[in-house]
Specification:
The protein is built from 3 helices and 13 strands; from the N terminus they run αβββββααββββββββ. The strands form 2 sheets. Strands 6-7-8-9-10-11-12 form a 7-stranded antiparallel β-sheet, with no helix packed on it. Helices cover 20% and strands 26% of the residues. By secondary structure, the chain is of the alpha+beta class. Helix 2 packs across helix 3.
């Protein structure tokens, strides 16, 4: 009995540690809740260059807190692109509604995700972006779960974006640890990390470990990830995201409204 009680206590301690971040997110009120989805803000954040003012090709990757209580735990990610001289952006993402989970459509690239402001994860422009756009479109068509969606632990929107990034190695995007579903690996237990700078092992998204130059070290338990980012002197916490001393993607308030673009 004592042995069983100790294991139960340890399990409860682990669960409390994993849920502390999401509980803090709920307490601080930084995630939009209490609205119906059709009333929530879907306006542009003014991050992406306007198509009629930007001739060059553009590829961007965004993340925003998920809608309602899900945002305490995770972000929703998507990809946007604009061809050279195009008058609009094409947005690629996955949702749990509709006949197909994969959506490819002309849209604003930097919309708020149902009340939650987007953050820019990657901004590629010029000839490199023009070269990557056909590769992105081909990867979207190859996504292995076009008719299947599961919010936890995947395949979901973050599984989709991680898939596309892995299929287009030049993107080299490190997704935040709060992108629950990115560790759901289609077709296996081992894969390169989305940034392409390391490797990860995952048991269906329920548990795993990741190590790379850009993502650092992450441990995934029940879809919630924590770890370290030595390159940016950062710590990653479930629900809260990454807090870093140097140049991180920080959910705690880094200004990304005027990022430096990667051009070629």
């Amino acid at each position: 009995m004592k042995h069983s009680a100790r294991w139960l206590l340890r399990a409860l301690t682990v669960m409390l540690c994993l849920l502390t971040g999401p509980l803090l997110m709920a307490a601080c009120g930084s995630v939009q809740t209490g609205q119906h989805w059709y009333e929530a803000d879907r306006s542009s954040a003014g991050i992406a260059p306007l198509p009629d003012a930007t001739r060059e090709a553009v590829v961007q990757v965004y993340a925003a807190r998920a809608f309602s209580w899900r945002g305490f735990f995770a972000v929703h990610t998507w990809i946007a692109s604009k061809r050279t001289d195009a008058d609009h952006y094409t947005v690629y993402d996955v949702t749990g509604w509709g006949e197909s989970t994969v959506r490819t459509r002309a849209d604003l690239p930097d919309r708020a995700w149902y009340g939650n402001s987007p953050r820019l994860l990657a901004d590629i422009r010029g000839t490199k972006a023009a070269r990557l756009i056909p590769q992105i479109q081909a990867a979207v068509r190859r996504y292995p779960y076009p008719d299947y969606y599961r919010a936890w632990p995947g395949p979901n929107s973050n599984t989709f974006v991680a898939w596309v990034i892995r299929e287009v190695p030049e993107l080299q995007v490190a997704l935040p640890n709060t992108a629950i579903g990115k560790d759901f690996l289609p077709g296996g237990l081992v894969a390169s990390t989305p940034s392409g700078s390391g490797y990860q092992v995952s048991l269906g998204g329920y548990a795993g470990v990741l190590a790379s130059v850009h993502e650092g070290l992450e441990v995934n338990l029940l879809g919630l990830s924590f770890g370290l980012n030595p390159q940016a002197l950062g710590i990653k916490l479930p629900g809260l995201g990454e807090f870093s001393a140097l140049d991180p993607w920080m959910e705690s308030g880094r200004d990304m409204t005027n990022p430096s673009a990667v051009t070629d």
